[in-house]
Amino acid sequence: MQKLTYTLLLSLVIFQLKAQDDADTTKMDFEEYDPISTLVVPENPVKKARFPFIDVHSHQWNMTVDKVNQLEAEMDELNMAIMVNLSGRGFDRAAGDIGSQEYLASMVRRIEGEAPGRIVVFTNVSFKEMGNDGWSDEAVRQLEEDVANGAKGLKIYKSLGMGINDVDGNRVPINDKRLDPVWAKCGELGIPVLIHAADPKSFWDPHDEKNERWLELKLRPRRKRTAEDPAPWEQIIAEQHDVFRKHPKTTFVNAHMGWMANDLGALSEHLDTYPNVNVGIGAVIAELGRQPRFAKAFFEKYQDRILFAKDAYNPEEFYTYFRVLETADEYFPYYKKYHAFWRMYGLDLPDEILKKVYYKNALRIIPGLDSRLFPE
Hints:
Blueprint: H1 2-22, E1 53-58, H2 65-78, E2 80-85, E3 91-92, E4 97-98, H3 101-114, E5 119-121, H4 135-148, E6 154-156, H5 180-189, E7 193-195, H6 214-219, H7 233-246, E8 252-254, H8 264-273, E9 277-280, H9 285-288, H10 292-301, E10 306-307, H11 318-326, E11 332-333, E12 343-344, H12 351-365
Parallel strand pairs: 1-2, 2-5, 6-7, 7-8, 8-9, 9-10
Antiparallel strand pairs: 3-4, 11-12
Helix pairs in contact: 4-5
């Protein structure tokens, strides 16, 4: 009886200790940890860009009249003079491919009727029939017609090199020779190619405690890649760079700073190697904001090659971009913890560099933009 009583008491103690452990607020998952900083430093949040700017990397899918009017009002609040909608052809879900030429042409007409000059579109390439006879010629023909209908450039999604197969089921590399006529035609037409290749290198690295993107990969497991799914990161990037090399007369904008914003030394070498390449800062402001001195020096050296870009459209997220570029603020948060659990610091760029990043470089690279929307 005494032994039974002791066993019951021991069980009760273990139960109570476990309950205390479960209620222990010092233990939590990493994604729950979000402390409020006790650091007291000057704060200069920015909700409107210092100068009118051009966002060269946006995606808008349902451009109704109401949507155009809504966007124009939001752009005014941000001081965004021009938005570049890279999804000019939209997406035909039934066909599993980009939309039609008429989709693009009607979008241009709608925009010009409601907000002339404020939103421009880039076209896209259909790879659905790639591998059939005459595909390259047809792709070039459609590109020419889209430009005639108002497209200001060509956008290449990351699906090229990551998921596009030809009619024979083979992966299409970015530097596939069947695409050479498309890149060359863009050079002839004087339009830029904004091209997204691969994803952050961390998506190919082991998903362990040493991976900075650990939380993102936990929350978005489909973003994890391997050397076989679809190919090594280095190979995909090398294919993109090969296109830059083969087509020096075509102007390219390497989206997301070519996934080298975390290694500005490598990006410097990249820009020195390919004078026909520029970079957009979309989705990599968190990399720049954690290295303000090195990043500022990079912006000073390559001020004629950097374009403002955001990617996913959310007006409040632009505030972080403005604050990183314009202020000298210290230790302020990024807006998505799973992208960046670290804090941001401002680059405090001088006005002349800001003007180039915000609009001057885009005005030079993208044809037909309304320069009257900007100061001298």
